[in-house]
Structures are given as C-alpha cells and as structure tokens.
Amino acid sequence: MSRTPVINQALSNVWLQEQGLLSVKDLGCKAQGYMVTKRKTSSSEPTC
C-alpha cells in the first residue's frame, strides 16, 4: 500500500524528513562509508 500514488502524495519523503524520521537508505549508505548526495558530483568518493 505504501507505493500507491495517494499515499506517496499524502506522505512524501520530504514531509517524513521534516517530521524527523530517518531514512534507512541514508543510514545504510553512511554505515558502508558512502556519501549521501542528492545529485551526482565529480567527487572521488563513491556516492550512494
């Protein structure tokens, strides 16, 4: 049900972050030593 358009519109990722919820993907990437970025950069570090 979480992948339905109505739920995605009502509870967007941005809204969930504003409520203080953590991203499991971001935590996993951080644990593996990756940088969490919103867009690709020409950095030598791997991005998640």
Using the CA coordinates, give the radius of gyration.
14 Å
SSE sequence, one letter per element: HHH
* Unreliable stretches covering 5 or more consecutive residues: none
- State mean pLDDT (0 to 100 scale): 79
The largest sheet is: none
Helical content band: 40-55%
Distance between the termini: 26 Å
The count of β-strands is 0
> Pairing-aware structural class of the strands and helices?
mainly alpha
The outline comes out as elongated
Strand content: under 5%
Number of helices: 3
Short note summarizing the structure:
The chain is mainly α and 48 residues long.
Description:
The chain is mostly helical and 48 residues long. The protein has a domain at 23-48. 42% of the residues lie in helices and 0% in strands. The chain has helices spanning 5-10, 13-18, 24-31.
Key features of this structure:
mainly alpha
Helix-strand blueprint:
Layout: H1 5-10, H2 13-18, H3 24-31
